[in-house]
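The passage that follows is intended for readers who have already worked through the single-chain material. We present the inputs for a multi-component assembly, then the predicted structure in tokenized form, and finally a short commentary. You are encouraged to pause after the input and sketch how you expect the pieces to fit together before reading on.
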Amino acid sequence: MKTIKIFFALCAINFKHLLIYRASFWITFLLMAGWAGAYVTFIEVIFGHIDTLAGWGKGEALLVLSYYYLFQNISDIFYKDNFEEFSDVMRRGELDFRIIKPVSSRLLAFCYKMRFDQLASLVVTAGLFAYALSELKMNISPLYFSMGILYTTISVVLYYSILSIISTFAFWMQKSDTFKVLIWNVSQVARYPRQIYTGIIGKVLTFIIPIAGLASVPAEIALQFDHGKIAYILAGITIVMMAIAQWFWSFGLKRYSSAG
Amino acid sequence: MKKYLAIMKLGWLDAMEYRLEFLLGYLGWLVSFVIAVFVWLAVAAGGNGTVGNYDIKTMVTYLLIIQLLRAFIFSRAGFIINQDIQQGTLSNWMLKPISYLGSQFLIELANNTLRSLVGFVVFGIVLFYYNTELFYTFHVAKIFLSLVAILIAHTISFLIISIIALGAYWVVNANRFLFIYFSLLTIFSGMLIPIDLFPDHIAKILYLTPFPYVFFFPTSYILGTLNGEETLRALLIGSCYVLLLGLLLISINKAGIKKYEAVGK
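Having made your guess, compare it with the prediction:
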């Protein structure tokens, strides 16, 4: 309960930051539009040559892209910057002030800085959803579409756990730009339908390092592809990954010898 | 000249010191390569084994060459420049009798050369076994022109990312701009999708931008899909972009330095 209260207090503090730097909202909007536009172009080019990608039509692949941006936007708002900057925070000795407080050290390490200017990205993503739905050759049930949106919450938690595990390695390695690039590359896996990853790698990316389904599974729920089986499996994996991330964080923290 | 050689040596030492991080960086490249291969395998499966002028073998060879070149061409200097401006560490450089941006270029050149050596071993072996015939197409002139094309590509990549990072003079953190640039680079430089697969009217526009000269042209030249005239034209346009972007970088840096506040120093 205390952790939740502190989380909301952090939200309030960071939201005031947006009110001070209002221009950030519009800059983010323009940049996100450019980013989404580039990948829509990619999908358009691909589907200029083929009709289906691993069984997904153009509208369906665009729906995966929309869910991808949805969980990315939410993670950008609440925690992404903290993971990217974690090794810098450690190196500058700022982590010391966060871990001595009587609250979850992981919460203060990874949710300390929030980016509410990223709300602008959600506006672009909403536009992307509208485009994806217009390109679908079937009618989508509003109920299942909403369930897909709700399921994105699980993707956000799972993504948080995966990034937490990656960033905890900073206790052993402290060069920041490597983590930024690694996190960026890893997140790209979720951009496409998970069925493109076949064989052992497909299974690893779906069940062991479960990144492939972060956007695909919400889209599958919305499109009623799999009757929810994979959704339950991914929810179970999320619980396991949350536990591993917490354990690994506690293990890594013991190695931390302070930089300040 | 001596002091710049010393700076390059620092770049090597930096790469050697952070060996584990260096390998982690490679893991990142490997992830993106695996993604690209799976995407194109799925695309080719949907197109009966070919996409445009590319069959599976040519496409995977293209992606492998991209991986070989990526370690050298790809620039991360923007993160360092952004951080130096943001945290005020640029002040330390300003006190030295050397060019800050020139030094960053040399440090990265040295760093990337070392990264490339590892890349050549890892992806070179894979490429050799996957497409041995490609190695028989190399001769002295092709090796020389390939090196020139790759150096032009890295310089363009460095100049663009540095120009974006200089945005840190005006905004608190330019990292977001860098990530947006990466997404544009991925799509429009030929890193993920060869430019000649775009519809003709879009490809024509892209050829006017510096993006294709970063990955598409060096890779296509090595792959052997460019004729002599196209190669020379690409090298000429690429060199012009180096000049133009270099001048732009210098003028933006001059304007930005007036806004620099050396925060925390």
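Commentary: The beta strands of chain B are 50-51, 54-55. The mean pLDDT of chain B is 87. How closely did your sketch match?
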